[in-house]
Amino acid sequence: MLKPMRLPARLLQRKAQTHKGDYGHLFILAGSARFSGAGLLCAEAALRSGAGLVTLGLPKSINLAAIKIKPKEVMTLPLPETKEGTLGLNAFTRIFQMLRQADVLVIGPGLGNNKSTYALIRRVINKCPVPAVIDADGLNALSSNLGILMKHKGVTILTPHQKELSRLFGLDITRVQKDRKLIAKKYAKYYNNTIVLKGHETLVAGSGGELYVNKTGNPGMATAGSGDVLSGMIGAFLTQGLEAFSAAKYAVYLHGLAGDIAAKDKTQMGMIASDIIDRIPEAIKRCS
């Protein structure tokens, strides 16, 4: 049996004289009319992973529905949208105002591939004043626009699966599958970011050449929303003061461990992303 990884004291130890602001404010830009649950999964996972405050930026048409089903602790920010129900470029001003209040940004889950949405994503990342976790449609919007990664002066964590990474960097998918470790390390160093290459034995590659190969997790986690959960966990650990590589490493490990715990109860076949969220506290307990 795999010996549990011990979490750093910074995450586990909380002083008696403390308040929610001490554990950071995470701002999540996620969701669209078609993928309304992505942001909710991301936000709940962040709260279960210790973030002090979570604000979820949503297209205004799905905000009301989200309020009815979201965890009560999640704040929402209704934003201007396109006719397709995705976030539009005209939402940038309100988003940037919120970024001035936040400590970390997660951007991408379920945002959709609308042209105006992609333009918004690129502008937000280009101007973002805080560390950013970029996932899903956030990554797709950067394809052929990689110069933006160079312009973002803050910490950046990219969380692609193999197909997204091949599309992002213009690589053949078979090459990515064959040389996962080499490619993850190469591009993390070149773009000065951290790359979480998701899949069996997820890799975390740091800008300084570090590489972590994860051993937790199971095939049952190949289910809708699992990646949104991971993005929320990484964002939460960043808000609590971990540097990029450590935040990604511990989040990946706990995400997989929570999935392993869930599989024992729900089975790999019957597991859904919400089951992973429900087991995050147990995973944390095992690593304390």
Report how far the terminal alpha carbons are from each other.
Answer: 17 Å
Q: Low-confidence parts, pLDDT < 50 over ≥5 residues?
A: none
Looking at the structure, the CATH topology is: UDP-N-acetylmuramoyl-L-alanine:D-glutamate ligase
**Overall number of structural domains:** 1
CATH top-level class: Alpha Beta
Which percent band covers the strand fraction? Answer: 5-15%
Helical segment count: 14
Q: Helical content, roughly?
A: 40-55%
SS-based class: alpha/beta
Spell out the CATH superfamily: Ribokinase
Mean pLDDT: 94
Going by CATH, the architecture would be 3-Layer(aba) Sandwich
Shape: globular
The neighbouring-strand order within the major sheet is: 3-2-1-4-5-6-7-8-9
Q: What oligomeric state do the depicted chains represent?
A: single chain
* CA-based gyration radius: 17 Å
Order of helices and strands: HEHEHEHEHEHHEHHHEEEHHHH
Commentary on this structure:
The protein has 14 helices and 9 strands. The chain has one domain (22-286): 3-Layer(aba) Sandwich (UDP-N-acetylmuramoyl-L-alanine:D-glutamate ligase), CATH 3.40.1190.20. The longest helix is centred in the last third of the chain and has 23 residues, at 244-266. Helix 2 (37-48) crosses helix 11, helix 11 packs across helix 12 and helix 12 crosses helix 14. 46% of the residues lie in helices and 13% in strands. It is α/β, with parallel strands linked by helices and 288 residues long. It has a 9-stranded mixed sheet with strand order 3-2-1-4-5-6-7-8-9, sandwiched between helices.
